[in-house]
Amino acid sequence: MSETTAPAAHGATRAGAPAAGRAASAPRRSLLKPLLAVAFVVLLLLVPFYVEEFWLRTGFAVFGAIVGAIGLNLLVGTTGQLSLAQGFFLAVGAISYVFVSGDSGGIGVAQLKGLGLPPLVGMVVGVLLAGLAGLLFSPIAARLRGIYLGVASLSLVFIGQHVLNSWTSVTGGFNGRAAPDFSLFGFTFANKDPLLFIAGVEFREAERLWYLGLALALAAYVFARNLLRSRPGRALQTLRDSEVAASVMGVNVQRYKGRVFLVSSMYAGLSGVMYALSIGSVAPESFGLEVSIQYLAMIVLGGLGSVGGAALGALFVSALPLVFQRYADVVPFVSSGGQGGLAAGEAARFLYGAAIVLVILFQPAGLAGLGQRFRRRGRDPGGGRATRTSSTSPETTDVPSNRPAGSTS
Amino acid sequence: MTQFLSLLLNGISLGAMYALIALGFVIIFKASEVVSFTQGSLLLLGAYSIARLSEPIGFYPAVLVGILLTALAAFLIERLVINRLRGAPVISLAIVTIGVDIILLTELIRRIGSDILNVPHPWGSESVRIGEVGISQNRLIATGVAGVLIIVFFAAFKYSSWGVAMRASAEDGETAALMGIRLGRVSALAWIVAGALAAVAALFLVGAPTPGVSAAAYTVALRAFPAAILGGLDSTGGALVGGLLIGLAESFAAGYQDQLLFLGRGFGDVVPYVVMIAVLLVRPSGLFGTKELTRV
């Protein structure tokens, strides 16, 4: 990791006092940070004991969104491939889960098919199929550059909508179909089976799902962070900054684009499965263009290229409408329906629409960059692009001319 | 055969309107390097204001005001947002237009609600027959107006000083600026023209055989995206061809729906996207787009 190697190297070449001081202070910080992280996770683990069901359900929805946003961020933020197809990949994951784990049967006139396999299998298949969809799209994606890709990926959403509406036996058609409860080796993530009390708190569906979501979101976060710090992660960032430079450096451009599509859409698939679990059913309208745009909003707000930022953005965008809905009578300008005020969904959309514009105008590095502005010697959580290198050794910095998230702070 | 001709005619008229919207995309892209996702909500704005104003001030003044309003909105977007981001990466610019689009669209949909606003076109919803082929009067007039507008546009693009300035700045912005071309003004004008074109397209898109202004008009506008892309984002001629192609494809897919039933009902709505992907697979920069060259 660069924060341990880079200052030492600079210290050797430049023998600057600040560099030496930084090297000395490095161990202390590296101890503090994991401690904070552990405390944060413990805090999250304790939440179900104190918090009511609404917040736990919102929390699970947010965890699902975090997974999806991290996935999209790998694609758009890190690699610079604009994609509006997130809604489509979410749908692939969700529908596969529902199809594989759901039972055959009829709802009304629609005759539904289902394989009735264990939910874990459904989840894995959902993730894999979404990945496969991404991989299948990647040859097209690899041929297209920049904005052409963005618009081409738009088409996936619309074609996906069409398939969702037409392929009734699998998707349930226009009305959608119910999602089976998740279970893991006989332990069901529902209100019973088995009844569970821990420290006097009854563990119902919401509490159980909270832990499932937390585990998945943490895994997604750690995997993405490690990926970005690894060799492939560096390759992806180079790809964003300049494809030519990347290929000169020996990065196989087409192959890496394919892989990042694979990984990103697998993330989306998992997020889709979590979405199905959180809502309890899937319907075509849940995977429209608006969803893709919401995910884009998340990563832009969080800061393109930053994993932690994506998580923050996901929290903001996905929890906002739910919270507005809940506190409609408290929040100004928002009404529960009808009389003049904004509906909760509308208020949320206004807010994040405006937030996108403001972030791009005034703070292109997003929430992650905002954090960095205050934490002066902070390190970019996305890929360890050390912001301080620009001040200490201008000759080693990569040119930030056309990267989406500039390290300007 | 009659059905074929009728679909052909309807496809051309639909394509003409797509071409108008696509032209908007293309000139905005040429002038300011922005892929504008706001076009859909601008179109809806045009349709909405025409529908709302024709009751109090009459149809033709309403059309005029609607077009002006939409052009003004586009101008404001350019001045307040896009102009401040000169030189930002293309992706950021696209995303910022998505943000603007969210705001505008949310407000319009909130106002429209689930209603279908009626636009009182003086030519009504009658249809005319040319030989054995029927087409709604609205569509016929649309084709005519779009044709005239397109010719005027191309003439202006070729001969007027604005057109020359625009082509120059698209070719090489820096040199154009050194020659005394005000890039900001060129870009603002491009947005105004694009807004006006979208409003004109809106006027006809919400007429017969479409029932009126509803939130669905937005998705119709989005189908002009494939039109602009498959023609090549930086080619005005491409937008024309792309618009016609998409219009024809949609019209035929909808008309021969019964023969295409294995693809699901309503396949006509997604056919523009299928066509776009097919074209992009063969020609990644569209039919007439400039190939991106990489120089090291």
Structure description:
The complex is a heterodimer of chains A (409) and B (296). In chain A, the strands form 4 sheets. A two-stranded antiparallel sheet of chain A has the order 1-2. In chain A, strand 6 and strand 7 form a beta hairpin. The relative contact order of chain A is 0.15. Chain A folds into 2 domains: 1-50, no CATH class; 51-396, ABC transporter involved in vitamin B12 uptake, BtuC. Mean pLDDT of chain A is 74; it is low at 1-26 and 378-409. Chain A is built from 16 helices and 8 strands. By secondary structure, chain A is mainly alpha-helical. Helix content of chain A is 67%, strand content 4%. With 296 residues, chain B is mainly alpha-helical. Chain B has one domain (2-225). Chain B is built from 12 helices and 2 strands. Chain B has helices spanning 2-32, 39-57, 59-80, 90-112, 137-159, 161-171, 173-178, 183-205, 216-222, 224-231, 236-255, 271-282; strands at residues 127-130, 133-136. Chain B has a two-stranded antiparallel sheet. In chain B, strand 1 and strand 2 (133-136) form a beta hairpin. The longest helix of chain B has 31 residues, at 2-32. Chain B is globular and about 60 Å long. Chain B starts with a helix and ends in a 14-residue tail after the last helix. The interface between A and B is large, with 48 and 45 residues.
Question: Which labels suit this protein?
Answer:
heterodimer, A: 409 residues, mainly alpha, ABC transporter involved in vitamin B12 uptake, BtuC, two-stranded antiparallel sheet, two-stranded antiparallel ribbon, 8 strands, 67% helix, globular, disordered N terminus, disordered C terminus, B: 296 residues, 2 strands
Brief synopsis:
The complex is a heterodimer of chains A (409) and B (296). By secondary structure, chain A is mainly alpha-helical.
